[in-house]
Design a protein that fits this description.
The structure holds two protein chains of two kinds. By secondary structure, chain A is mostly helical. Chain A has 14 helices and two strands; from the N terminus they run αββααααααααααααα. A two-stranded antiparallel sheet of chain A has the order 1-2. By secondary structure, chain B is of the alpha/beta class. Chain B has two domains: 167 residues, Periplasmic binding protein-like II (D-Maltodextrin-Binding Protein, domain 2, 3-Layer(aba) Sandwich); 209 residues, Periplasmic binding protein-like II (D-Maltodextrin-Binding Protein, domain 2). In chain B, a hairpin with a 2-residue loop joins strand 4 and strand 5. In chain B, helix 12 packs across helix 18 and helix 18 packs antiparallel against helix 19. Classes of the chains: A mainly alpha, B alpha/beta. At the A-B interface, helix 1 and helix 13 of A face helix 1, helix 5, helix 13 and helix 18 of B. Chain A: Keywords: Cell membrane, Membrane, Transmembrane, Transmembrane helix, Transport.
Chain lengths: 296, 446
């Protein structure tokens, strides 16, 4: 039996929760539910004469699409290489910026620049720099003897995706740097010094003392970035629009094409639902794994 | 436990009711008329009086570039119209074409489209299929200047006898060539046919170190160029059938399939014989225009807007001349009719009044002196040579083009990047066009 005071506190708590709940229902739950619902409907805005329940037809059509395997493979390549590259660059720069070097504050401020540049501006600037006819990077690479003649990095089937991935790594690694730098600063110097006195070398101290203490922050940012990268749309769209010939097309670009070029919201929703389900499974696995770890 | 459930469920119901109320507040304007018609007698009369006296606000979405002289002229003219009409306010919004397209799709489906907007010719079939466009036939026929608009332009914007859009400007394509580059190669005039072009490719390369031609192998312009080459060889993307719907008939007719294959063979030859730069196979319109303006190659099929870019390379652009596009079977060029869309709105009369101002001689002389859709505006300079090609202009069929233009772009990549056989590419494109027509319910026999 609740006392009057407890009831009042509970009502107050509900009052505070209600706006958030309302926004969640309106802005998250309802659209997600609608996408799931639409994925089982025939919903083509250009052909309203045909509608109704589609069953699994939309899913079948998407899976049968000529470009689905390419988009799936591209999404995996784009995500894995991006996150791995960002993490490696991030931890290397974080370790460097954690040293007591002159101008450390300036370097720490400068390294954040790629991350604060808007994606559209970064994408267009890199596109211009990579242009074969007047792009500065091609000119430099030819002058340095790295390549014989200018190369169309974003226009060739075998380099378009990897080039956009490289630019994405350049843009995103500062987030890792900042997060890992914060983690590094919490590593006890006493332990590191004690290990050094005991004869542990630089590499041994890094692998066996520093890195294990960055485990939580590393897992968190890697996990977040797997999701952010897999669902990223704007960087690829700005730089290649998924081309040439779908060579850099990922699943979010494919969803956009279904929805905004073909107006087939049924198939767009089915592909979005597949991505949503996959992400939900990943989150659930991560949640259970981390819960089990915490329980010991 | 039960009480707690009841409390929570009533809380949830309250939230849902509030959500419903909120969403009702945000519903589209189209319902205003319905609710006002249910007012009582005196309230209704008062509302009618207010409606009669208060000015109408027209929402107008444009893709003008405010940094250019043309953009400034448009803003000035729209303001003049606004100031001179007490009963009409124009709410001008400036958006890029990409953003505008996606916003229009969302707005049309939410029942909240603007009154008028600019657009691309590729959107015409889609918006017509979405039943978003007003029937302008009667208003246009009553307009005093209707005979000043090119008849084939009006015809291209007419579907089933109804005029469904107006022309904003014309982007007729012509062959632009750097006379000095051709003269350096010993050519006194530009090639007239595909074969002449290919036969002279090596000569120009040897004598000048530059390529003879430029194309857009990717992006929005590549399908526009492809449809032109198809028309020059006597084939079209989709033909209207007896049932009023459309179909690509290449695979039903070996002669058409052979002609379509020749077009893709032409693209392959351009690349293999060095008539175009190797990178041109994936150039978009930006690279195509930029490289021509900088004099990196000799000739291109392009629009009047290149004249406005002469300031980027004044010396190098002095020698640019205009000629009809090269062809194979019969002369043809792409005629981009940039539409002015007038949507089904609550103010059709005011919307057409504003639209007719935008098509008027005064506005077109100020804004589109070289690209006006009127016969009485373009009388000299570059525009005259371009407009002379209006009669051989081809346009996209009035069907939903989203999937079709993507398939056309893919077909160029297959033939130039993957080096697939032209005949196979033609067959694939034919099937992809019919698939797209089937999905949008526009395929004949479906």
């Amino acid at each position: 039996m609740l006392t009057l005071k407890e009831k009042r506190i509970r009502r107050l708590a509900i009052g505070f929760i209600l706006p958030a709940l309302l926004f969640f229902l309106l802005l998250n739950a309802y659209p997600l539910g609608q996408v799931l619902w639409d994925s089982f409907q025939i919903k083509n805005l250009l052909n309203k004469a045909v509608d109704g329940f589609a069953g699994l037809q939309n899913y079948k059509e998407v899976l049968r699409s000529e470009y689905f395997p390419t988009a799936l493979r591209n999404t995996v390549v784009w995500t894995v290489i991006s996150v791995a590259g960002e993490y490696l660059l991030g931890i290397a720069s974080a370790v460097a910026l954690n040293q007591r070097v002159k101008g450390r504050t300036l370097f720490r401020a400068m390294i954040i620049v790629p991350w604060v540049v808007p994606i559209v501006i970064a994408g267009m600037t890199w596109t211009w720099m990579l242009t074969p006819d007047y792009g500065i990077l091609n000119i430099w690479m030819v002058e340095l003897g790295i390549i014989d003649k200018p190369y169309y990095w974003l226009g060739e089937l075998n380099t378009a995706l990897l080039t956009v991935t490289f630019v994405n790594i350049w843009r995103s690694f500062p987030f890792y740097t900042i997060s890992l730098l914060a983690g590094l600063q919490s590593v006890s110097r006493d332990i590191i010094e004690a290990a050094a006195i005991d004869g542990a070398g630089v590499r041994r101290r890094f692998w066996h003392i520093v890195l294990p203490q960055l485990r939580t922050v590393s897992l968190t940012i890697i996990f977040i970035h797997i999701i952010w990268t897999a669902i990223n749309f704007d960087f690829i769209w700005v730089m290649t629009e998924g081309g040439p010939l779908h060579a850099s097309e990922t699943l979010p670009i494919m969803i956009y094409r279904y929805a905004m070029q073909e107006y087939n919201f049924g198939q767009a929703s089915s592909l979005a639902s597949m991505m949503l389900s996959f992400m939900a499974i990943c989150i659930a696995l991560y949640y259970f794994a981390s819960s089990r770890r915490q329980r010991g | 436990m039960k009480k707690r459930f009841v409390k929570w469920s009533s809380g949830l119901m309250g939230a849902l009711l509030l959500a419903s109320a909120l969403s009702a507040c945000g519903s589209n304007n189209g319902k205003e008329t319905e609710s006002s018609s249910s007012l009582g007698g005196s309230e209704s009369a008062s509302a009618a009086l207010d409606a009669a006296t208060s000015p109408v606000t027209l929402k107008f979405w444009s893709a003008l570039d405010p940094s250019t002289d043309q953009g400034k002229a448009i803003q000035q003219k729209v303001k003049e119209f606004d100031d001179s009409h007490d009963n009409i306010n124009v709410d001008l919004q400036v958006l890029s074409y990409d953003v505008m397209h996606d916003k229009l799709i969302a707005a049309i489906n939410a029942g909240d489209a603007p009154d008028l907007s600019w657009g691309l010719s590729e959107w015409f079939g889609e918006f017509n299929k979405l039943e978003a466009l007003a029937d302008l036939t009667d208003s246009f026929n009553a307009w005093s200047d209707k005979d000043k608009i090119y008849p084939n332009v009006v015809e291209a914007l007419t579907v089933d006898g109804k005029l469904k859009a107006l022309p904003n400007y014309l982007g007729i394509r012509a062959l632009l060539y750097h006379e000095n580059i051709l003269e350096e190669a010993g050519l006194s005039a530009p090639p007239k046919t595909w074969d002449e072009l290919l036969n002279n490719a090596q000569l120009v390369k040897d004598k000048t170190g530059k390529e003879i031609f430029g194309i857009a192998g990717a992006g929005v312009r590549s399908p526009q160029e492809l449809i032109m080459y198809l028309a020059q060889n006597g084939v079209s993307l989709a033909e209207k059938q007896a049932d009023g719907k459309y179909k690509n008939t290449w695979q039903d007719n070996q002669d058409q399939l052979a002609k379509a294959s020749e077009v893709f063979q032409f693209y392959q030859d351009l690349l293999d014989k060095g008539a175009i730069k190797p990178d041109a196979k994936t150039w978009g319109w930006e690279e195509e225009d930029q490289n021509f303006v900088l004099g990196q190659y000799a000739m291109v099929v392009d629009g009047t807007w290149i004249e406005g870019r002469a300031s980027e390379n004044p010396e190098g652009m002095k020698d640019v001349k205009i000629a009809p596009p090269i062809y194979k079977g019969s002369p043809a060029t792409f005629m981009e009719i940039a539409p002015l869309f007038v949507y089904k709105s609550k103010h059709p009369q005011e919307a057409f009044e504003f639209a007719s101002f935008l098509m008027g001689a005064d506005y077109q002389k100020a804004v589109n002196p070289s690209a006006a859709p009127r016969t009485d505006v373009v009388d000299g300079g570059w525009g005259k040579d371009f407009m002379a090609l209006a009669s051989q202009g081809v346009v996209f069929p009035p069907v939903s083009l989203g999937g079709i233009t993507q398939a056309m772009e893919d077909s160029l990549a297959r033939v130039m990047l993957k080096k697939e056989k032209p005949e196979d590419v033609a067959k694939q494109l034919s099937a992809a066009i019919n698939d797209s027509l089937k999905n949008s319910g526009e395929l004949s026999g479906s």
